[in-house]
Specification:
Helices cover about 30% and strands about 25% of the residues. The chain has about 425 residues and is an alpha/beta fold. A five-stranded parallel beta sheet has the order 4-3-5-6-7, with helices on both faces. A five-stranded antiparallel beta sheet has the order 10-14-13-12-11, with no helix packed on it. Pfam families: AMP-binding (PF00501).
Length: about 425
């Protein structure tokens, strides 16, 4: 983070949020009138943040919603999470991302097939489309969208000689499955670059894509989220799961989850936390991203590089689907056998080229026949999971009934690990 930018922007941003957002005004009530360092602020509680961010009677926003865009960033059908951007905030967000996108291998004249999802307030397709419009590289867009059937995707990218595919890995794998089935000719492919986002790309997936599109380069399109905003960009020096900080637009921190102190030295894993320096309608100040990370470059390096290490306890990411522990708890609470002392944890796995979820429930006395009912209830609360499962893009949920003592805890604090990411083990 540029110290000059931080000193200039941070105090005024915090003062603005305290004055205009009832949530931040109350949260920072006991703090000094002027804040000079980010460490003076508490790391946000995601639960408190989203409880304050309601479309009716909300306490988070700093002003009325009269222009811009509203996007859905997760949650179940009964507990959706909405992110609100003013027109100015949205334009600043996308323009900054486009500058990072231009450093990731795009070339003038590329024909980019946008395979991200659109509709139902999801932002990935619209965001990518606008970022490509603003990108310093002059490219031609092919707005196909992720819901398009693989046969139509293949026909379009073949007819229009797409050179770049952009989408979530599950969509890419569905396309590869189709090409393998129909016996597509790899030598005829014009695809030279695949840009992915929304989930990790694993070695087995990379191998299949490289076999399908010989000579293809596979890179992240960038690291951002609907709720947290700008997080990192991937230039040509970045390896898998590596990103660089947006120094002028976001303050990216890695926090020790036990002490709450920022981690400065490379190689030490902690919680990713971000402050959006140029977002005003819905301020993001020390927001837990939901990922774990560690620094790669030395402290003080411009656009410092970091490595993602999987999800934290904030949520479980299964392919492009996000599941929050509180939503799973709500489902379990509807079953009498799971009420009271029944605890659980979510384990994300990767097998046979797909992501999956194991719900481990600490209750040996429960009837295992409940498993099918619980799984069906989760699919009902998170329809996207069931839809992607039906399309063969992710694995079905599995339930393990165990003794409560078998649930994993943090060895230092004794706290239950609510989400465990097994994919990076």
């Amino acid at each position: 983070m540029s110290m000059e930018i931080s000193r200039e922007i941070l105090p005024s941003l915090i003062a603005f949020a305290r004055k205009n957002s009832p949530f931040y005004g109350d949260l920072y009530r006991a703090l000094p009138e002027t804040i000079h360092a980010i460490e003076q602020l508490p790391v946000l509680s995601q639960q408190a943040f989203w409880e304050a961010n309601r479309l009716e009677g909300g306490q988070l926003l700093t002003g009325p919603m009269h222009d811009g865009i509203v996007l859905k960033s997760g949650g179940t059908t009964g507990n959706p999470k909405f992110s609100v951007f003013s027109r100015t905030d949205w334009n600043v967000f996308v323009t900054a991302f486009s500058r990072g996108l231009a450093l990731g291998g795009l070339q003038d004249g590329d024909r980019v097939a946008n395979l991200f999802y659109v509709g139902e307030l999801y932002g990935s397709f619209l965001f990518t489309h606008k970022a490509l419009e603003e990108c310093p590289k002059r490219v031609m867009q092919l707005p196909i969208a992720g819901a398009t059937t693989p046969d139509d995707v293949y026909r379009i990218i073949t007819e229009l000689k797409a050179t770049v595919l952009a989408g979530v890995p599950t969509t890419m794998m569905s396309l590869v499955d189709y090409i393998d089935k129909v016996g597509g000719d790899p030598a005829a492919s014009t695809v030279r670059l695949i840009l992915f986002a929304g989930e990790a790309m694993y070695p087995d997936q990379r191998a299949r894509l490289e076999a399908c599109f010989p000579g293809v380069e596979i890179r992240s399109i960038g690291y951002a989220s609907t709720d947290a905003g700008l997080l990192g960009f991937a230039d040509l020096s970045c390896g898998p799961n590596e990103f660089r900080c947006y120094d002028d637009d976001a303050l990216f921190e890695i926090i020790d989850e036990e002490t709450g102190s920022p981690i400065v030295a490379p190689g030490i894993e902690g919680l990713a936390v971000v402050t959006a320096l140029r977002r005003h309608l819905m301020p993001i100040l020390r927001y837990p991203v939901g990922d774990r990370a560690r620094w790669v470059d030395a402290h003080g390096t411009a656009h410092r590089k970091f490595l993602l290490r999987g999800r934290s306890d904030e949520s479980a990411r299964v392919g492009p689907v996000t599941l929050y522990p509180e939503d799973v708890r709500s489902v379990l609470a509807s079953f009498p056998a799971c009420q009271g002392a029944c605890d659980f944890q979510l384990l994300t796995i990767h097998r046979d080229g797909k992501d999956g979820l194991i719900l481990r429930i600490g209750n040996r006395n429960a009837d295992p026949a409940l498993s099918a009912q619980i799984i069906a209830a989760i699919y009902e609360h998170r329809p996207m999971y069931g839809q992607l499962l039906a399309q063969g893009k992710i694995l079905p949920i599995d339930i393990e009934w165990v003794d409560a003592t078998a649930l994993e805890i943090n060895p230092r604090s004794g706290k239950l690990k609510r989400v465990i990411d097994r994919r990076f083990a």
